[in-house]
Amino acid sequence: MTGEGLATLTRIMLVDDHPDFRDLMVTLLQNQPDLEVVAQAGTMAEARSQAATSKFDVVVLDLGLPDGNGADLIGELREANPDGAVLIMSASLHPTNIQRAMREGADEVLDKLSTPAEVVGTVRRLGNA
C-alpha cells in the first residue's frame, strides 16, 4: 500500500506463444485493480524487444516458445529490468526444466493448470517483494 492508502500497481509482461492463453491471462490480471499488463510477447524475439522498451515488475514466462526455451530469456529479462521478478508458468514442468529455470534466476514456478487465485496471488506477491 502506498502512503495514500492506494494499492501499488504491479506491471506485468506476459510471454507465451498461445494467444488464447495470453488473452485469458490478460482478462484475469486486468480485472484486478492493482495489476496491469503492460507488454505481451509470443516469441523470445518479441520478449527481448518488449523488455527493452517496457518497465515491468513481474514477467509471466512460458518455457516452451517457438524460437527457444524461455529459461534462456531469464538472464536477459533480469538485465533489462533488475528489480523485476520472473514467474515461470508452463504446461511442461519436467523437473529438469524447473531446475534449469531456477538456476537461471526464476523466482517461482506455476503450472498452467493453477487456479486463478493462485496466479493472481503469486503475481501480487512477486510484484510487491
UniProtKB/TrEMBL annotation:
Keywords: DNA-binding, Phosphoprotein. Transmembrane segments: none annotated. CDD domains: REC_NarL-like. The modification 4-aspartylphosphate is found at D62. Residues 11-127 form the Response regulatory domain. GO terms for molecular function: DNA binding. GO terms for biological process: phosphorelay signal transduction system. PANTHER family: TWO-COMPONENT RESPONSE REGULATOR (PTHR43214). This is Response regulatory domain-containing protein. It comes from uncultured Rubrobacteraceae bacterium.
